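does this look right to u?? iron/sulfur cluster version
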Amino acid sequence: MNQQQRFEPRIVGFLCNWCSYTGADLAGVSRMKSAPNLRTIRVMCSGRVDPTLVLRAFQLGADGVLVAGCHPGDCHYQEGNYKAMRRVLLLKRVLREFGIDERRLRLEWISASEGEKFARVANEFTEQVRALGPLQLEEAPAAVAEPQLEEVRA
Amino acid sequence: MSKPKLALYWAASCGGCEIAVLDVEEKILDVAAFFDIVFWPCAMDFKYKDVQAMEDGSIDLCLFNGAIRTSENEAMARLLRRKSKVLVAFGSCATEGCIPGLANLTTKEEILDWVYHRSPSTVNENGVRPQPRFHVPEGELEIPEFYEEVRTLAQVVPVDYFIPGCPPQAPQIVNVLSAIMTGAPLPPPGSVIGAGEKTCCDECGRKREEKRIKRFYRPWEIVPDPNQCLLDQGIICLGPATRSGCGALCVKANMPCRGCYGPPPNVMDQGAKMISALASVIDSQDPEEVQRILDQIPDPAGTLYRFSVPASLLHRKRTQVTA
Amino acid sequence: MISLTINGTRTEVREGTTILQAARFLEIPIPTLCYHPWLKPFGACRICTVQVQRPRGYELVTACNTPCEEGMVIQTDTDHVRQARRVVVELMMARWPNVPIVQKLAAEVGLEKPRFISEMRDEAPDACILCLRCVRICEEVVGACAIGYEDRGIKRKVVTPFHEESEACVACGACAHVCPTGHMKFEPEDYRGKPPEFLLGPNTAIHVMTPQAVPKVPRIDRESCIHFKTNGCQKCVEVCEAKAVNHEMTDQELEIEVGQILVATGYDLFDASVMAQYGYGRLDNIYTALDIERMLNATGPTGGQIRLKNGQPPRAVGIIHCVGSRDENYHRYCSRVCCMYALKFAHLIKERCPEAEVYNFYIDMRAFGKGYEEFYSRVLHEGVNVIRGKVAEVVQAGWSKQEEGTLLIRCEDTLIGKLREIPVDMVILCNAIEPRRDAERVARLFGLSRSPDGFFLERHPKLDPVATSSDGLFVAGCAQGPKDIPDTVAQASAAAARMLATIAKGVVEMDPVRAEINEEYCSGCRVCNALCPYEAIEYLEDKNVSRVNSALCKGCGTCVAACPAGAITGYGFSDLQLHAELEGLLAVR
Ligand SMILES: Cc1cc2nc3c(=O)[nH]c(=O)nc-3n(C[C@H](O)[C@H](O)[C@H](O)COP(=O)(O)OP(=O)(O)OC[C@H]3O[C@@H](n4cnc5c(N)ncnc54)[C@H](O)[C@@H]3O)c2cc1C
Ligand code: SF4
Ligand code: SF4
Ligand code: FES
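got this back:
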C-alpha cells in the first residue's frame, strides 16, 4: 500500500483531566511524537465517559475509541476509573454483538507522569486500528428519494 | 361539516397495536362517531388503490404501527405520509423498531438461510428461496422485497408524533384520541405523546435501595421479593432507562421492565444508558470478577436493546468485514 | 503535731517524722552512709548516731530510723555522739581503708589512723562497704529483687542468687546509681564508649530526643523504663515538682477536622551503599553527607569536631558530589542542594582541621542562589581543591603500615584531561535527595499526583507552584522537589499565605463543574446514590427523587454518565457539550 492510500484512522480519546490529559500534556511538552490520529476530549474523570458517547463517536465516523484514566487506586475521585472499567467491559460485549471488533475500544491507565506511555498508547492504538481497517458503519438509514407507488399492488 | 378522516395501518408488527386500539373498549364507538375511518385494513375492507385515489393531505390523522421491513411497508409509509396531515408512529415497532428490529443484529442472508435451509423444521429439498419476481405460465408474480435491515417509520418518512409502547396502553390511546377529539392544542411536531416524561421507576411502587449488584439473575432463577426493586435483587430491569406511561405493568406482575416504552426524554440511546447504569452499580473492582458478573447477562445487546436496535446509535450489526 | 527540741531549738513536726528528717529540716548536719532518701531507713551503718535525753541519763539512737516523740530532747554534737561515730568510722577504716567516702567520714570525725586492722581488710578504693543500698533499691524501688546478701557478720556479702547472672535483673542500673563507692557497676555491652545517637535505642528511660527536638521535652522510653518492666520505681513521678510525669499516657490516634492541608513531608536520602564502587558501608571512614552534618553539629557525637573512626582528625578529605543525582542509573535530576552544602563542608573542615587537604569532586558547580557564587569563590580562596570529574571508585589505599587506613579516590580530572588517584583518609558522599519511600502511600491518601521523578506534583510549574490539583491541598519543600532551606521556606510561606487567605475570606470558591439532578426527569431509581465518591447524592424519599448536594459534589461526572434517565446535568461537561465536541472533532476527515 503506498503512502497516499494508507488508511488514516480517526480515533477519539476520552482523557481524564487529572492523569491521562496531564500525561498527554506532558508528552507534548516533552516533545514526544504521538500519532495525530488520536483526537482527544477532556473529561474530569474517566467515570464521566458514558457509553453513549463512545457509540456516538463510532456513529460519527470514529474508527477507534480510547478511554484513558488514572491507574486503579489513583483516580482523583477515588473510584471513577473502576466504573469506567466496568462499563467498557460490558460495552465490549455489546459491540461484539453489533459486529464491531472490540479492539476498537481501548481502556488504558495513564498517569500524569506517563507522557511516554501516552505517546506509546496513541501510536500503538493508531497502528492497531489501522490494521483493523476503517469501521465503515452503514450510514444511518435515510428516506428513499421517490416513492414508487405504482409498484404497490392491492 | 364533514368528519375528520382517520386511517390506521399495520406494517411490520405483530398486530398487537391493532388489538390495543380495540382495547379502548366502548370508547371506540366515540372514535367511530367522531372520525370518518377511511382506511383500516385490519378491521374493514379497504384496498391500497382507495388510498392512492385520495387527495394528498386528505387524511386528518393516520396511526401507523409496525416497522419498515419490506418494500411494501416502505411504499405504504410513503403513501400514507403523502395522504395524511398528521402521521403518528404508533407503537414501539414504528417508533423504534421493537422486536422485529432485533433482526438488525443479524443479516438478511442469515435470516433467509436459516428460515429456508438450516432451521430444523424446514424441508426444502430444491433449495428454493423466494424471489421478488417470478414467472409462472399465468404471468409474472411479485412479492415485496425483503430489506437488508429493519427501519423505524421516521427513518423512512417524516413523522409528526410518536406513541411508544409494545403495545401502547389503552388508557394512553384514549388520552391521545380524546385530546384530539376535544380539540386540545397539539404539542410541537416530533413529540412523544401518550407517555410520561419520567421513567418506569416513577410508576413502580417497589422499595428501592442504593444499588450494589454482586450477581445478576434471570427471572426464572429467583423468586423476587414483590416489594423490593427488582434491580436491587439482581434482576435486569430496564425500568430506570424506560419512559414512563405504561403504569409499570410488568413490574406489578413481578416481571422486570423490558423497556418497550423506549428511552426517556434526555436519553439518546437506551441500551447505552443501561450499560452505563448496570456496569456502574456492580459491586467489584476486580476486572475478572466484574467479567464473571457481566457474563451472567446472556445477551446484552438483545436484553438492553430489545425494543430499540433500529433506533439506536449503531442501529444494526456491522456487516462489512475489513482486513 | 509533735514538738521536740534539737540542739536547743524547739520545733514541731508531723507524726512519723524521723529525727534525721527533723534535723535536716532545721539544717542541722548529721552524717549518713547507708541512708538514701528513696529507701526505707535501715540503720545499719550507725554513722547517724545522735543522743536522746531520757529521764535517767541519755540514749544513743540512729537518727535515720528513729521516729520523733513528743517532748524529745536531742543533741547531735556531744562528746558521746562524736565518740560513738568515731568508733563506727574507725571500724570501717580498719576494713576499707581506701574507700573515698569512708576516708571522708574519717576526716570529718577527726580520725587519722584506725587502731586495728581487720582480718577482712579490703584495700580496693571501690570496695563494697555493705550499706546494702543496692539490694534495697532493687527490692524496694525497682521491684526486681535481683540481688541479695548472704552470710552474717563480717562474712556478709552482696550476691546474686546462686552467684549466677540473675534473670530477674532488668538492667536498669539503679544499684550502680545508689552505690556510694562505685562497687556496683553498670556497663551493658552496647553503651561502652559510644556516643548516644549511635546506639540502636535511646540510652536512658527518660530523655530529650535530640537537643533540637520540638517540643523540647523529655519522653519516657517504654523499652528502658523500669516501671514498665516491674511496675515499680516511678521515682521520676516523685521528683517531678510539676507533676508532669504520667506513665499512663499512651499513643493516641486523633481525628482532627481541617479544611486545608499542607503536605511538607520532605525527602529521603539515596542509599549510598547501592553505588558499591564508593565503598559506603564496606570501607571505614566513608560517610554520607548527613553523617557529616551530624558530626559538624555542636551537640553531635563529636561535639562538632571532624574525626576519623580512630578519633584522629583527618589529613585529607574527599567530598564527592552528585552521588545518585544526575545519573542515568539512579536519578536523572539534580538534587540542587549538594554543591552548596559540599562547599559548606569544605569550608567547615578547613576551619576545624586547618591542616587537612580538602578535595571536592564535581560534575558542574551549581552555585545558583543569592550569595552562593560568592561563597564558592571564598571557599576556593581558602585553599580547597576542586576537581571537575566524576569519581570512578574509592578503594583501600594499600597494606603498608604507612598507608594504613587511607583511601584512594580514582577519577578523571576533565579539566586537565588526566586520570588521577588521590589519597585521602575520609570520603564524604553527597547522596541524592529522593522522594520519601512512603510517597506513593501519601499520594494515595491525599489524592496527589506525582511527577516522573516521584515528587508530588504542583498544580502548575510556573503559575501555581504551591497548590495541587485538589482544592485545599498544598505542597511545599522537598516533598515537591529537591530544594534548599530558603526555597523551602519561601514555598511554605506562600502556601501558608494561601491557606490563610482562604480562612480570612471565610468562603470557599468552588469550580462550577458540578452535577445537578433535574427533578422533572429523575424517578428515584437510586442508581446514582452509591456511585458518588463524596456521598453528595441523597435520596429524598418523600419526593422519590435524588438530589446532589452541590457543596459536596466535585464534578467528576460519574453519576452524569450513569443516570439511566439522563436526569443529571454535569455542568462544564454536559451531554450537550460533549456531543457537540464529538461532532466538531469528527466533522473533518
Ligand atoms: C546533607 C544535607 C545538607 C543540607 N544542607 C543544607 C544547607 O546547608 N542549607 C540549606 O539551605 N539546605 C540544606 N539542605 C537541604 C535541606 O535539608 C532541605 O531544604 C530542607 O530540609 C527541606 O525541608 P522540608 O521541610 O521540605 O523537608 P524535611 O526537612 O525533610 O522535613 C519533612 C518533615 O516531615 C516529616 N514527615 C514526613 N512524612 C510524614 C508523615 N507522613 N507524617 C508526618 N510527618 C511526616 C519528617 O519527619 C520531617 O520532619 C541540606 C540537605 C542535606 C541532605
Ligand atoms: S440515577 Fe438518575 S433517575 Fe436514578 S435516582 Fe439518580 S438521578 Fe434519579
Ligand atoms: S458528579 Fe461526581 S461528585 Fe458530583 S454528585 Fe455526581 S458522582 Fe458525586
Ligand atoms: S480522575 Fe482520572 S480516572 Fe478518575
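Strands of chain B lie at 5-10, 36-39, 59-65, 68-70, 84-90, 133-136, 139-142, 146-151, 161-163, 191-192. idk if thats expected tbh
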